[in-house]
Amino acid sequence: MKKVLVTGALGQIGSELTLKMREIYGTDNVVATDIRKTESAVVQSGPFEILDVTDEKEMVNIAKKHEVDTIIHLAALLSATAEKKPLLAWNLNMGGLVNALEAARELNCRLFTPSSIGAFGPTTPKDGTPQDTIQRPNTMYGVNKVSGELLCDYYHHKFGVDTRGLRFPGLISYVTPPGGGTTDYAVEIYYEAIKNRKYTSYIAKGTYMDMMYMPDALAAIMALMEADASKLKHRNSFNVSAMSFAPEQIASEIKKHIPDFIMNYEVDPARQSIADSWPNSIDSTCAMEEWGFKAEYDLEKMTKDMLVKLGLKSF
Ligand code: AKB
C-alpha cells in the first residue's frame, strides 16, 4: 500500500485506522473521506475530502485526484440501525460498496472492506463457527454483509480486483464510540463504569458474542492488506475474533477493578434478537494459517487497558 483512500474515516474504525496508517505510510499518503467534516484529528492531521459513498463519480474523482492504489471502504450502517432503516441500509451499505469496487476496478486499486459476525444467521453452527459454513442471516445488516462478501468475491474472480476482508466481531475502543451496533453494550459499559459505577445492559445474561479490542483490529487490517496475495485461499471474508463473552462476564471483570460496580439488565428485544441470531464464538484458524492473524488482547488485558485509558486512577 503506497497511497490509501479511507471512506467513513470519522467512524469507529476509520478514526483510529487513518491515524495509525498515517504514522506508518506517511501523512500525505492516507486520504481520509467522510460525509461530514468535524474538528477531529483525522481532519486536522492530513488530507481530507467530503465524500458521500453513494456518489460513484465523486468517489472515482477523489481516488483519481490523489492517485491512490488502495481503498479502505468503511462507510456503512451497523446492525441495529440497519434493522430500523432497512432500505437506507441497503442503499448505503450495498451502494457504497459497489461504488468502491467499481472505483477499485477502474483505477486498479486493492480494496479492503469489513464484513461481520452479522454475516451469519440462526442456522449457522453457533460454537466454533467455521470459516466456510451456512450463511443465511435474518437481518438487513447480515444480508448486506453476505451480499458484500459475494460481491467482493465476484469482483476478484471476474475483474481481478485484489479484494480482501475480515468478519469483525464487536470492536471495543476508548477513542471513538460505535453507533447503532448490537455489540455496542461492550463499549458503553466501560464508559458508564467509570462515570456512574453502574450499567444497564440491553443484552441478556448468557448471550455470548465475539469481541475484539481495537488495536488488534487495526493490526489485523494492516496485516491482511500487506499479506502475500498468493497465500490467500479465502478472499471475502476471514473470520477473526479475540474473545467471546456474555454481559455478566465483562461485568465481573470490571468489578475486579471497580468493586462497587453494579450491572442491571433491561433487555431490548430488537437488539437481543439480532444477538441471538449470531454465533457464540467463531473460529479464526484460516486467518491464522493464511496470513498470520494473532490477537494480543483477551478480556482481562483489554479491561485493564480500557479502564486506565478512560481515566480509572486506582490501579
Ligand atoms: C454491530 O454490532 O452491528 C457490529 C458488528 C458486530 O458488526 N459491531
Automatic annotation (TrEMBL):
<protein>
    <submittedName>
        <fullName>UDP-glucose 4-epimerase</fullName>
    </submittedName>
</protein>
<dbReference type="GO" id="GO:0006567">
    <property type="term" value="P:L-threonine catabolic process"/>
</dbReference>
<dbReference type="InterPro" id="IPR001509">
    <property type="entry name" value="Epimerase_deHydtase"/>
</dbReference>
<comment type="similarity">
    <text>Belongs to the NAD(P)-dependent epimerase/dehydratase family.</text>
</comment>
<dbReference type="GO" id="GO:0008743">
    <property type="term" value="F:L-threonine 3-dehydrogenase activity"/>
</dbReference>
<dbReference type="Pfam" id="PF01370">
    <property type="entry name" value="Epimerase"/>
</dbReference>
<feature type="domain" description="NAD-dependent epimerase/dehydratase">
    <location>
        <begin position="4"/>
        <end position="239"/>
    </location>
</feature>
<dbReference type="InterPro" id="IPR051225">
    <property type="entry name" value="NAD(P)_epim/dehydratase"/>
</dbReference>
<dbReference type="InterPro" id="IPR036291">
    <property type="entry name" value="NAD(P)-bd_dom_sf"/>
</dbReference>
